[in-house]
């Protein structure tokens, strides 16, 4: 390394006779610090001409040491160390030796500087900090926690979060940044977490720690206020989020946004940007529960360092289905060829009105050559930065997209409509076509088509007295591709015939709204017929007696019933008293049976005459049975919890549970039970959303046992409030 710099200085060794004796130490020292040691040049025998400015500088340096040249020789004042006696030969070292001595000095200086620069790196010094995007939120909002670990070491410790019981914590990715400026290495890593509040109140994020080599750093605690509702007097949240990307000023040499992409600086060639991101939807005015396809495209014209990280948008008011990504492809945009990656999501508006799809962002790392000032006097910056590449982290954001969801029309809505939007077809089949009275058959109803099949309500089976009907179990099979979500939902119901003969299962209707035609449609199954034979009568059990084993005879049937052994008959008053006692007990028993039968009959008549009251009284017991079933089936807990909550509300409010939405349930509870506490309604909304999250985004919600306990407490609280 130093020899190369010596070569750039242009000081090749020149042949010159060596002096008869070595130079004095002081003379050698002046050779290193003199004009030639500083890079200047003088005219000497066998050397080239040098500029006048360099020669003048050399003369000034020599004069500062108290000596001057006379006829090409150097003289010193008397008494100066290294002065020559009269007639003594000049003892200056050769020019080649001077160059080597100067290069050796630079090498020693470089090594010393490297050792000094290495000390901070070996010290493993680092810092950790934490920030949040807001310190006051409502139960419907979220907090983004950013933890940054920075230092001068190539490897940094990972932060450790303390327990935060007030929030559900979801990892949102991490990013790294590495730079080398002025010979100093700087490394930083940022970890992002999304905190979802669980209940209102003041929450504390404790100190976040990071440990490396026995050294521990920690952040200051952060306090967050979680409110039930947004303050009415506040025009905006206390900590307003950053303005959307389109509101931020763009550089003068920025590319115009295309299809919702924020501007990115163009390259020097005048073509499109190196990388950018766009977002678009296939419809702006969907109906409630109609499928909306969101497509995010990431355009890259440069090589990335590692994989890019995508952060999905906030989608309040939508149900979401992720679609598997397709293969990247090539496209020409803005005069450049890009590699394009697509990310798609199927969104289903859950309510009418204006809904916003928030900005999504992509974090990626690209390589850029370090910008070094060629005139900088810093030797080490030029030495270390020459030819190095700098890794930069870029965050690309899309613009928010506003949709206006339309409610389905009221006119022409069929009675069997449960909220399905799309195009559906339905079929039905029975696993048996012939059976006996009391036997069971499985009726399978399959609904196929496009749209949000997960929220499709149970088909309404026509009421018939010929069959006893049991609960229905449903399963969903979905297929996802670039065109969206389609699939089928299967409903299985157990039917038990009550009479014999040729029984008919009527056609089962399934109504839906067709957004393409903007009208309701009804699909029906074909009627099914089954042959039911009378049940087998119970024959009396025959009596048998066995002969002696020695006789070897077989068992012989003696009679068709048991022969009772009668004791001696009682005589006189004792017999009459016993008969009277038996008669009295018999009359009491018959009276009790009559009263029980009468009570049961009246109860059944009451249930038949008041089915709404029966549903109201039995709602809590049925729901608690579902909760116990959910505890024993963790994989099916989300569906069972949803059924328990929907059945309870449907029975209490005397309305069909199929198609019952959260907004409808809250409205009915407020109108029919004016004294219903607001806290119960808030808890209902939170648990409803947690159940939906666990059903449609497995693993994103909290512990299933915690949700089951919360639903049980809520149902008991609602039941108690409805009795007041």
Q: Summarize this, please?
A:
This protein is α+β, with helices and mostly antiparallel strands and 724 residues long.
Please explain how this structure is put together.
By secondary structure, the chain is an alpha+beta fold. It has four domains: 2-77 and 91-122, no CATH class; 126-230 and 253-278 and 296-404, no CATH class; 408-533, Immunoglobulin-like, CATH 2.60.40; 611-722, Four Helix Bundle (Hemerythrin (Met), subunit A), CATH 1.20.120. Helices cover 26% and strands 32% of the residues. The strands form eleven sheets. Strands 12, 13, 15, 16 and 17 form a five-stranded antiparallel sheet that branches. It has a four-stranded antiparallel sheet with strand order 3-5-7-6. The chain has a four-stranded antiparallel sheet with strand order 23-25-27-26, with no helix packed on it. β1 and β2 form a beta hairpin. The longest helix is centred in the C-terminal third of the chain and has 37 residues, at 573-609. It starts with a helix and ends with a helix.
Give keywords:
724 residues, disordered N terminus, Immunoglobulin-like, single chain, 5-stranded antiparallel beta sheet, 11 helices, 26% helix, alpha+beta, globular, 4 domains, 33 strands
pLDDT < 50 runs, ≥5 residues: 1-97, 111-123, 233-270, 537-564
How large a portion of the residues is in β-strands, by DSSP E? 25-35%
The major pleated sheet works out as:
5 strands, antiparallel
Report how far the terminal alpha carbons are from each other. 90 Å
The domain count comes to 4
Q: Name the shape in a single word.
A: globular
Radius of gyration: 45 Å
**Quick check: average pLDDT?**
72
Structural class: alpha+beta
Number of helices: 11
Q: Can you give the helix content as a percent range?
A: 25-40%
Q: Count of DSSP E strands?
A: 33
């Amino acid at each position: 390394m130093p020899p190369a710099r010596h070569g750039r200085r242009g000081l090749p060794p020149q042949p010159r006779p060596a002096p008869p004796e070595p130079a004095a130490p002081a003379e050698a020292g002046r050779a290193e610090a003199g004009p030639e040691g500083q890079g200047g040049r003088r005219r000497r025998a066998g050397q080239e001409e040098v500029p006048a400015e360099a020669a003048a500088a050399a003369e000034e340096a020599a004069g500062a040491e108290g000596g001057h040249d006379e006829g090409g020789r150097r003289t010193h004042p008397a008494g100066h160390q290294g002065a020559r006696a009269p007639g003594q030969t000049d003892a200056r070292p050769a020019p080649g030796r001077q160059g080597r001595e100067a290069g050796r000095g630079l090498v020693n200086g470089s090594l010393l500087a490297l050792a000094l620069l290495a000390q901070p790196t070996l010290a493993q010094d680092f810092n950790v900090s934490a920030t949040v995007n807001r310190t006051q939120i409502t139960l419907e909002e979220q907090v983004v926690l950013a933890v940054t670990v920075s230092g001068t070491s190539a490897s940094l410790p990972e932060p450790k979060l303390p327990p935060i019981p007030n929030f559900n914590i979801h990892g949102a990715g991490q990013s790294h940044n590495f730079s080398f400026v002025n010979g100093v290495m700087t490394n930083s890593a940022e970890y992002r977490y999304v905190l979802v509040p669980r209940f209102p109140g003041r929450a504390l994020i404790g100190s976040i720690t990071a440990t490396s080599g026995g050294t521990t750093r920690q952040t200051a605690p952060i306090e967050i206020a979680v409110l039930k509702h947004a303050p009415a007097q506040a025009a905006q949240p206390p900590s307003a989020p950053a303005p959307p990307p389109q509101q931020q000023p763009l550089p003068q040499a920025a590319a115009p946004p295309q299809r919702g992409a924020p501007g990115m600086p163009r390259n020097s060639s005048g073509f499109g940007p190196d990388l950018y991101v766009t977002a678009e939807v296939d419809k702006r005015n969907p109906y409630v529960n109609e499928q909306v396809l969101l497509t995010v495209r990431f355009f890259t014209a440069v090589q990335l360092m590692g994989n890019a990280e995508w952060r999905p948008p906030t989608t309040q008011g939508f149900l979401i289905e992720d679609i598997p990504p397709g293969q990247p492809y090539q496209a020409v945009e803005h005069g450049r060829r890009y590699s394009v990656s697509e990310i798609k999501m199927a969104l289903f508006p859950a309510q009418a009105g204006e809904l916003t799809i928030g900005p999504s962002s992509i974090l990626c790392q690209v390589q850029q050559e370090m910008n070094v000032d060629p005139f900088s006097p810093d030797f080490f910056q030029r030495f270390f930065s020459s030819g190095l590449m700098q890794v930069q982290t870029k965050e690309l954001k899309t613009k928010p997209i506003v949709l206006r969801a339309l409610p389905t029309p009221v006119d022409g809505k069929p009675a069997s409509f449960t909220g399905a939007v799309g195009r559906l077809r339905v079929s039905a089949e029975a696993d048996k076509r012939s059976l006996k009275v009391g036997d069971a058959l499985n009726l399978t109803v399959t609904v196929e088509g496009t749209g949000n099949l997960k929220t499709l309500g149970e088909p309404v089976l026509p009421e018939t007295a010929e069959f006893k009907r049991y609960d229905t179990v449903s399963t969903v099979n979905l297929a996802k591709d670039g065109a969206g979500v389609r699939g089928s939902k299967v409903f299985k119901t157990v039917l038990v015939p009550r009479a014999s003969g040729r029984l008919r299962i009527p056609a089962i209707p399934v109504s839906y709204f067709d957004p393409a035609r903007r009208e309701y449609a009804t699909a029906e199954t074909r009627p099914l017929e089954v042959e039911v034979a009378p049940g087998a009568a119970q024959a009396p059990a025959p009596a048998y007696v066995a002969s002696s084993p020695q006789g070897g005879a077989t068992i012989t049937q003696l009679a068709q019933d048991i022969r009772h052994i009668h004791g001696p008959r009682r005589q006189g008053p004792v017999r009459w008293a016993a008969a009277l006692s038996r008669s009295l007990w018999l009359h009491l028993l018959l009276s009790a049976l009559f009263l029980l039968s009468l009570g049961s009959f009246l109860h059944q008549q009451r249930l038949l005459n008041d089915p709404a009251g029966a549903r109201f009284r039995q709602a809590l017991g049925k729901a608690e049975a579902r909760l116990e079933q959910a505890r024993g089936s963790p994989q099916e807990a989300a569906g069972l919890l949803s059924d328990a909550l929907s059945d309870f509300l449907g029975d209490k409010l005397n309305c069909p549970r199929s198609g019952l939405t959260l907004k409808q349930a809250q409205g009915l509870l407020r109108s029919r039970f004016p004294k219903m506490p607001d806290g119960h309604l808030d808890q209902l909304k939170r648990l409803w959303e947690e159940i939906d999250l666990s059903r449609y985004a497995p693993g994103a919600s909290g512990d299933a046992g915690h949700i089951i306990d919360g639903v049980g407490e809520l149902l008991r609280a609602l039941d108690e409030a409805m009795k007041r």
